Amino acid sequence: MTTSEVLLPSTRRALLHRVATAQSEGRAPSLVAAVRRDGEIAWSGARSCVDGHEPDGETQFRIGSITKTFTAVLVMRLRDEGLLDLDDPLEKHLPNTDKGVGQVTVFQLLGHSGGLGAETPAPWWERTPGTTRPELADVLGDEPLIHPSGHGHHYSNPGYTLLGSLVEALRGESWADVLRREILEPLGMDRTTQQARAPHARGWAVHPWADVMLPEPAEDLGLMAPAGQLWSTTTDLLRFAAFLAQGDERVLCASSVAEMRVPAAPHETGDWAGAYGLGLQVLRRGSRTLFGHSGSLPGFLATLLFSVEDDVAAVVLSNATSGPLTGTVAGDLIQIVADAEPRMPEPWRPLPEVDEELLALTGPWYWGTQVHALKLLVDGGLELQPLRGIGRAARFRARPDGTWVGLNGYYAGETLQVVRADDGTVDHLDLGSFVFTREPYERTAAIPGGVNADGWRGLNL
Prior knowledge:
This protein is of the alpha+beta class. It has 2 domains: about 5-340, DD-peptidase/beta-lactamase superfamily (Beta-lactamase); about 355-435, no CATH class. Helix content is about 25%, strand content about 20%. It has helices at about 5, 10-25, 65-80, 105-110, 135-140, 155-170, 175-185, 225-230, 235-245, 255-260, 325-340, 355-360; strands at about 30-35, 40-50, 60, 205, 215, 230, 275, 280-285, 290-295, 300-305, 310-320, 365, 370-375, 380-385, 395-400, 405, 415-420, 425-430, 435. The protein has an 8-stranded antiparallel barrel with strand order 12-13-14-15-16-17-18-19. A 7-stranded antiparallel β-sheet has the order 2-1-11-10-9-8-7, sandwiched between helices.
């Protein structure tokens, strides 16, 4: 499918204008972007300071910390295979991680809440060879923990070096080999590599006060590779975005990638517009939630973002140390497409078959005097929502034992149980010990504390 068949000319014009503005105002040697929607690359465009040499979807740029998301997927695969638990302390799998680092959990490292410092000890790791830090001790330094573990978010590049070493320890081979076999090859990402492969952009620094450039070094990061080594393209990264939105059984199931999108720790006070899941950034733009990751290394800026609800993803890559705000641009590209050409809803269709017992549970239920509605969903699940005002809404999935487990909100992980009377009729619903009845404080239901025998009354009774 060609771009002209996917988006309207006015939408394509708006996308190209946003990219052109970003390259010009950001004073970037080049900038390339692409958008994916409904399983297709819907648009791509680029601008360059050299006429006729715009990068395309196969041109590699360094993607910096987007690499962390790949490392996080590898760790989640280990979890899903039962080789580790996210609550395991690191030392369970990486012995001799001293100075308190061994007690940091895998979950905390994935979500940057382990308390580790943001960077390695000097010299500046992004501009020096990985051989400068041949051992984990060189990456961590003498005082690796600068905050209490688990008490909040503090971004840590060394933390992802530890996760890369964890992958190597449990797989018995290099992080790069595991990455290629378990993610890149299954997803067809043959232009994502540890070292640059032509055609690729060169990294540049642009002088802040003059229109001149300086070439940046491109170092092999060694042990720090799992935090920021990779080179990739817009085409490959859009494939990765589709996987992060939907899952792929060859790599990681849909429920596990959804787990990665859940905020893992609160940010600092006031930083309400963003959070961090397990290897994924979570951003709020108006009413829209975006997921993905940004990345930077000397000479390069990169952002991958996607909206699950809109089924739109955008990738923006540039070969400048600073200047173009790739994260803002990527979010704008998603907004342009999603607002100008909203996603068509699927046609309504009835359920293929009727479960009479579930159907009988639908309708109004009362928690005390607060009315809720229980609805049967097309996937066979249940949804409980308040009918008046703001309250606790949740979806539920059936368990084999006949109970239901909450999937979101206040009741996430809580148990919903249908409690029956001796004659087999439904007496009430028990949701985490709360009783829901068909009538407000129904006399015949087993309500803790009982119901006053005199019943409801007016003011003068």
